[in-house]
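re: ur msg from earlier - yeah i can do the guanosine-5'-diphosphate complex, just paste it... oh wait u already did. ok heres what im feeding in:
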Amino acid sequence: MVTVLAGGTGGARLARGLLDVVGARELAVIANTGDDVEMYGVHVSPDPDLVAYTLADVIDDQGWGIQGDTFQVMDALERVDRPAWFRLGDRDLAMCLMRTELLHAGERLTLAHAEVCRALGLETEVIPMSDDPVRTQVKVRGDWLPFQEFMIVEGGKDGAPEIEDVQLIGMDEAEPSPEAIAAIERSEVVILGPSNPVISIGPILAVHGIQETVAECGVPVVAVSPFIRGRSIKGPTEDFCRWAGLPVGTDCVFEAYSDLIDGAVADEPAAGRAVHVTETLMDSPDARRRLAQETLEFAATLAS
Ligand code: GDP
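and the outut:
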């Protein structure tokens, strides 16, 4: 049994590789919900959905949404001058509607997302970090922006405005999803996926009890670095690391996760650290499967 902590693309790709190696029922993914947002009357969970779509092999090539989706609802909203800056495909929206209906009926987010996974034919558990709302906000030019607004409206993807601060609204009150704690406790290996350490993996570990459970689980804990040849290949990871005072490169995961990890997988070594050095770019099914296999083999050599 393997548990992976994941944000978006990087963590999702590694999880897809692990699915091939260990099988659907031996894998659980705990996903960041700090990027969740209420839009068009539905609850959107960008990271849990990205993971689920990647595991189900329906992720669109652009890196979010469902392959071959149409955007008729967004087009219709734009025609009546309703802001549609957050693009959701029609099938993607259907998944969000299903989740929202269950939430409105009083269901927990974990079980509502499990229904989305079931609808995609997944057998792997994709578990939101918490059933309680946590919302990442980023301060730019003196204003606090919800994460999606920072990314999409302010062009956070291009690293444009300087990040002045980050806050996780609701974190103090958030309880971990019981399924997340249970998954960690029955795992033989815990992997921190190659996602943004500050705003993807950081929020998962910040939920009361999650970091403690990982620290006390008594099994090897391994991080896979999100840096390829010293650079982030997607999104504003470098900007957030700079804001958090973290180095960019293999050292980053050792500083970000300090005592929590027993070793890391990266394409460059780090002085004095337990690093399995290998190609970490997952640009094909073979590449992600190989990285997943090597990560598990490396974990097996580590004392927890
Ligand atoms: P986002 O939410 O989609 O931006 O994605 P994540 O939270 O997963 O984090 C983005 C990080 O994933 C970036 O720093 C990328 O460098 C990293 N990443 C994306 N694809 C890969 C990959 O194939 N291999 C590795 N090692 N990292 C990757």
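cool cool. The longest strand covers residues 135-140. ping me if u need the other ligands too
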